[in-house]
Amino acid sequence: MTETDGSSEAVILATAGYDHAIKFWQAHSGICHRTVQHPDSQVNAMQITPDRQLLAAAGYQHIRMYDINSSNPNPVVNYDGVSKNVTAVGFHEDGKWMYTGGEDCSARIWDLRSRNLQCQRVFQVNAPVNCVCLHPNQGELIVGDQSGAIHMWDLKTDHNEQLVTSSDNMARLWNLDHGEVVREYSGHQKAVVSLAFRDAHAV
């Protein structure tokens, strides 16, 4: 869960999946020091809150929040009301709200400052949502769905824009300011479903 050696910040490592369990690990030793049962469903996605206090676990029809720094085995907050699997979860950098995406063809905003635990806003698309990412400007959600479409949802204006309309075995680099393709990467024989990227020059 949290380990500090004086020269580096504390590391929180948690894993989960189809065994209905969430495990917390000492990252440097590989020792599992805590297991929390998640009996309602498998865990599809997890994210740690920016203040490092809670772990959000997204499953079938719900999101459960677990206290990282206690031995409490039960979720401390429960978000329900989604009709299918929740496939993505993340947080605003100030911890004001949480976003999710799911197989109900929607991305959702949940106000973490409110105690009513209800979804505040919904962005509907035409296919199940695979992934949701928050733009570094903290004001736009990028939503990818199973049809191959990528949507930009401007949270300030509620305007949305669709960037991709099909899955054609290519990866693309986009200029998000202009909504234009800068470069295309071809060579895969089937649909591109995953990408990892790190800019060494990014601050």
Automatic annotation (TrEMBL):
Cellular compartments annotated: Cytoplasm
Protein's UniProt keywords contain Cell membrane: no
Signal peptide: none
GO CC term (a single one): TORC2 complex
Function: Subunit of TORC1 and TORC2, which regulate cell growth and survival in response to nutrient and hormonal signals.
Family indicated by similarity: Belongs to the WD repeat LST8 family.
Protein name per its UniProtKB record: Target of rapamycin complex subunit lst8
Organism the protein comes from: Acropora cervicornis
Lineage, top ranks: Eukaryota, Metazoa, Cnidaria, Anthozoa, Hexacorallia
